[in-house]
Amino acid sequence: MKAKIILVLSLFTATFSLAQKTTEKPTFNQKLATELGADKYGMKPYVIVMLTTGPTKIDDKTKMGELMKGHLGNIGKLANEGKIVVAGPFLEQNKENYRGMFIFNTKSKEEAEQWVKTDPAVLAGVFSYEIFPWYGSAALPMYLKHHAEIAQENP
Q1: How far apart are CA 22 and CA 16, in angstroms?
Q2: pLDDT tens figures, 2-16
Q3: Residue of 100, 82, 93, 95 whose CA lies nearest to 155
Q4: I want to staple 84 with a disulfide (CB 3.0 to 4.6 A). Which of 4, 78, 98, 118 is the partner?
């Protein structure tokens, strides 16, 4: 009986301490908030660029492969410069012909447009784009560091 009571108390204590740890509010980090450009809500403006199907269709697989290699290389370059915080293709076709998206680390639509125009596939007309201001977590750029830790290959 005594062993059962000790076991129940141990389980209760473990459960209670686990519950406390998961409900504790993280300590506010002013230095990090300032570095990331966060407002009082931990948010900041970004610009989303939606890549759409462009007017140019390229049937030559070698040329298209070179454009896509340049497209991916440009994304990597912009990410390394801290300009892109999210980029990726859509996995399904959609009625808007959205092919992929970028989230740029700027609040300036003009600056985002300058950056998207460095993409060889955009310059070739394979992709067109639409630009939208967006408001999201200022911590968003931090995920890239962790992505590099979990990716076995880089396309």
Answers
A1: 10
A2: 444 444 344 444 445
A3: 100
A4: 78
Q: Which residues pair with 104 in a beta bridge?
A: 47, 84
* Angle at alpha carbon of residue 134, lines to 154 and 70, rounded to 5°: 30
**72 Cβ contact partners less than 8 Å away, ≥ 6 residues apart:** 155
CA distance linking residue 139 with residue 42, whole number of Å = 8
Q: Tell me the mean pLDDT in the region 74-85.
A: 95
Q: What is the pTM of this model?
A: 0.78
Q: C-alpha distances in angstroms, 21 versus 7, 14, 25, 110, 143?
A: 21, 11, 9, 44, 23
Q: What is the pLDDT of residue 21?
A: 54
Q: What is the mean pLDDT of residues 137-144?
A: 88
Q: Which of 101, 102, 50 is nearest to 81 (CA)?
A: 102
On whether the CB atoms of residues 33 and 42 are closer than 8 A, the answer is yes
CA neighbours closer than 13 Å in the CB half-sphere of residue 84: 22
User: 39: which 2 tokens?
Assistant: 């407002």
Per-position b or e across 56-73, b if 16+ CB within 10 A of its CB:
eebeeeeeeeebeebbbe
